[in-house]
Every structure is written in structure tokens, then in C-alpha cells.
Amino acid sequence: MVSKQIYNRYVEIEKAEDEVQIISFSSETPYERFFGTEILDHSPSAVNLSRLNEIGCVLFNHDRNNVIGKIERAWIENFKGYAKIKFDSDVESQKIFEKVKSGTLKGISVGYTVDKWEEVKACEKSYDERFVGPCSIARKWTPLEISVVSVPADASVGVNRQETNGGEKMSEEINIEKLILVERERINEITNLCREFEIDPSTYIESGQTVDETRAEILKNLIKEKSPLNLSVIKDEGDKFREAAADSILIRSGLENIDKNNGAREFLNMSLRDLAIESFKRDNHQSLNNKSNDEILSILAREFYNPTSAFPSIMDQVINKSYIAGYKKVAVTFDKWTSKGTLRDFKTVENNYLIGNAGEFLFVPENGELKHDLPIDEKLPSRSLKTYGRQFTMSRQAFINDDIDFLTTIPARYAVSARKTINKQVYDILVNNPVIYDGDTIFSAKHKNLVVDGSKITSESLQEIIMQMQKQTDQFGDAIIINPAYLIVPVGYGFIVRTILGSPTINTNDNTQSINPLYNYPIEVIEDPTINVLAKKNAVPWFIVGNKNDAKSIQVDYLNGQEIPTIRRMEAAGQLGFVWDIYLDWGVTVIDYRGIAKNLGIKF
């Protein structure tokens, strides 16, 4: 029996949504196609209903130009495809709907594509043993649209094609499947609603309450108990003003990708003095129009350290946005081939051991014993962070002269400086070859990663250094596979390298042509002028670096993974202007010498 409460809700929905119908649109009934018998698998993982549920529509006789309704929901149940559809209100759609209601049109068909077939031969069973061949089973398929049709392919589906009980149709007054759908939707909505507030939904479900009644009662109880509600943060007028004013300065400076539709246009003609006056007026409801520049600066100096003051906040936003934009555009190369790490504090990380290789598997004879293995460990280098930074001031003259370039250009320059400082530190290690964690220089005969007889880059010297890297062994003397990934060269070698790697043939000693073994070799060429500068007038070296997954070389660590420097207002008085601190914490460490090799190069 269907409860009276469910039936009453069903009647209410029918009155509110007269054009809504529950239909079955597909089944596993075999259908004869030109290629043989076709069966649509209706197991849960076989049917992709995303298209129907997202953009599905109802057609008449599969005519794409004759859309008569929409699909509100589609689902699979008892190995059949079902949908809740709603007819459109135009004359043609209503004409079809009247024929559906009267029983003239009962046929439903589905348009679909098949992604995966299972072919079953005669007298054989499908892999799940549910079907017998010969047949073609659509194991992965996607319904594209549902059509009301005059001649359906599958007579077991359609409008009011519901399951029967003892051979008799269910009462037309109460469509059981539709009532079940209504009840299922009520339970799901109440459950989701209660989950948001960590409330047991069973009381509301069992008492037969509607979703609206449940929502009203939850709200009433929350108010009574004074429980906090989850509220989203909405920008107030002050926030919107600060953001628009900051963006107006960035637009004036020519910075790209700034939103011009958030109110920024309103402030484009305002100078820094004008924005300061407008900000003070909004914050304190007082006008500074009659004040001199020095008087305004004096007032702003007091406001500068007030966290709720608008004008300092506007300058902070301008500086941060321009800084980040500049930081992302810095032309450096170190981060292409170095590893990136993170440290939680400034303590030196020591006693960091690398677990050694496990022993080789040994043959165990019949009734023999397994021999115990004790892996060997080797200590890794220590890592630590240092703080690097600068301080800059917006002077009295810059404010009076409306020098907005200070707020945009200067921070961007510091962004360039931060990234270039790291870049220089990394390449200084490559060029100047310092002593590392094992007491030897990073490039040495002991480490087998140095070509002492320096040379320019040729096909032969390139092959030599690649083979040198690939002959490296790990900490425990076992062979390792290091795939060369990066060729790091000074400016001036890029053309030569690309010619070598891009030529299908090479000249041999006897003036004949031979196949170039390095043609299209999968290695990235990195050309950096920092190497030229650091080498000064000496021979200019070049390097090869292995894939970071095979062997590490140099690693750059950041405090808690923060790569972009912090900018904050300086909390110190006595400056004739406004001061900001800018700083970043990082450390550069040689992790392993095996992942990198060096050719001493030549002077050029």
C-alpha cells in the first residue's frame, strides 16, 4: 500500500507540474538491427547518463529540429532506463503532450552512441552469463536524447510502460513508480539538508514532513539554540572601493589583465592625492580638500598603521598585484632543472638518511633457508634556509608628484631581483664548483662528472658527457639509469647545439656523410647568460643534467613552500614617506653530484 501522505504529495506535485511525466526509455530487450541482434546493457556502470542529466532534451520522432520538452532527471533502475520529462508550453509541444495524455502516443525511443561492444557467438554466453548469442552487446553506451515516437523500436518501454503485478496493470490513479520517485527525492533532499547542520534526518523522514517543513523547523531550532549558521563572506562597500581604486592605479600604469568593470573606471582620473582624500572621507567622514600636501601626508602617516584605513590598503594591493605580476614574468632558468623542496623552519636539517638498496634476490634451493638482508644507509647533505630581503620607501616627492610608477614599477623590480638572486646562486655553484657534503667539490675526478679537457660543444663532446653520466653508480656501487634531460649552455652555444640536435646527418673524418646519432635527441637546451657573466674572462663551461626522477642535483628549498616574497608595511616612525619591507626565505643545496656533469669549456 502507498501511504496517504505520499499520495497527497503526489497529487500536489501533479497539480503543480501537469506537464511532467515519468517514462521508461530503454531496456535490455533484444532488437534486430541490420548487423544482427543488439542488446543495450543496463548494468549500473554500462550507461553514461551525464549528457541526458546535463543538457538532455525530448524530441518528437528523433527530429533534432522538433524539441518538445526537457529531461529533468534520468536514472537506471531494475535494468531499465527511466526519465522524468517535462513538456514545453508552446502549441506544438502541447499538441504532442495531449496525444500522450490521451494514450494516442505511447512510444518512447532513445538516440545513443556506443563506445564499447561485446560480440557473443552463437550458442555462447556473454562474459557475465546474462545473454546468449549470437548478439552484439553495448557494454558502454551514452544516451543522447529521448524521443516521443509513433513507432517505437522497443515496445517494452514508453509512457506508462510500468511493471505489472500478476498480469494486471497497476491502477492508473496512482502511478507507483512515480510515487516512489517523489518519496526518494524527498528523502534525499531532507538527508542532504540535515547533513549540512549535522542533524539526524530520521525524525523528519519518518514523520512524513516535506522539505520546506523540515527546513523551517531546523531554522527555528537553530535560532532557539542560538547556533551559528555557515555564512559566506561578502565584500562590503569599503572592500569594493579599495579594490576598484587599486585597480585604477594598475590600469593607469599599463599593467595587463586588470578588471576594468569592477568600478575602477570611476577612479582613473584621480591622482594619489585625490584617492587619499577620497579614502579619508570614506573612513572618517571628513574632507581634506583644503589641506596642503604636507598636511595630508602628516594625516596619512598616522593612518598608515591603522589596519582599517583605506589608503594604505589601496597602496598595499597595488604593490602586491604589481609585484606578483612582475615575479611571474622574470626570465630565469634555474627552476626548469633544479628540484623544489620545502622546510618548516630555519633549523638545519641533518641526520637525513637515504635508505639504501635492498640486497639482490638469492636462489633458494628446495628445503633451503632465506638469508637475512641488512640494507645499507648513507647520510644525505644538510639543508637550511636563510632570509633575503630589502626595504623601500615611497617618498614625499613621489606622493606629491603622483608617481604611480613607484607603486608598480619598483615592486616589479624587486620581484626580478629576488628571482635573479636565486638564479645567480644556483649558477654560481655550477661555475665556481664549491666543496659539498662529502668533502669534495661537486665536479671532480672522484665524482666522475667532470670533463677536464674542456672543449666547445660538438657531436663527439656531447656524446662523451652523456655516456659519462650514464655510467654513474649509486651510493652502494650499483648501476643506475640516468636519462639526460637538460643541456645547460652559456649564451653563444645555443645555435651550435640546436644545429647538432637538428641535423639528420653529420660529416665524418673522411668527408663523407653519416647518420647523426643525436638527431632529435630528447633533451631540453637551456641557455643562460648568467654563466657567461660568472665565468668572466675564463673558459666558459657547459653542463648536462639528468631527469629529476632519476637523480637529483641541486635543490631550492622555501619556507613552507612559499616561493613569492612577502611585502609588509614597515612599523617604524620617523621616515619622511611610507616604508615597506620585502623578504623571502630560501636555501640552495647540492643534493647529489650524480645527476649533473660539467665540461670545463673554452674561452670565447
In short:
With 604 residues, the chain is of the alpha+beta class. The chain has helices spanning 4-16, 50-55, 91-102, 176-196, 202-206, 211-225, 237-253, 272-284, 293-303, 310-328, 334-337, 396-400, 404-432, 459-470, 494-502, 529-535; strands spanning 20-26, 31-33, 36-40, 57-60, 63-77, 80-87, 107-120, 135-149, 158-159, 339-343, 353-355, 377-379, 386-395, 450-451, 484-489, 505-507, 513-515, 524-527, 540-546, 554-559, 566-569, 577-590, 596-602.
Helix/strand class: alpha+beta
The rough form would be described as extended
Question: How big a fraction of the residues is strand?
Answer: 15-25%
What integer is the average pLDDT?
80
Number of helices: 16
Instruction: Please tally the β strands and state the result.
Output: 23
Portion of residues within helices: 25-40%
What Rg is obtained from the alpha carbons, in whole angstroms?
37 Å
Q: First CA to last CA: what distance? A: 95 Å
Poorly predicted parts? 10-17, 160-174
What can be said about the biggest beta sheet? 9 strands, mixed
Structure overview:
The protein is α+β, with helices and mostly antiparallel strands. It has 16 helices and 23 strands. It has helices at residues 4-16, 50-55, 91-102, 176-196, 202-206, 211-225, 237-253, 272-284, 293-303, 310-328, 334-337, 396-400, 404-432, 459-470, 494-502, 529-535; strands at residues 20-26, 31-33, 36-40, 57-60, 63-77, 80-87, 107-120, 135-149, 158-159, 339-343, 353-355, 377-379, 386-395, 450-451, 484-489, 505-507, 513-515, 524-527, 540-546, 554-559, 566-569, 577-590, 596-602. The longest helix has 29 residues, at 404-432. The N and C termini lie far apart (95 Å).
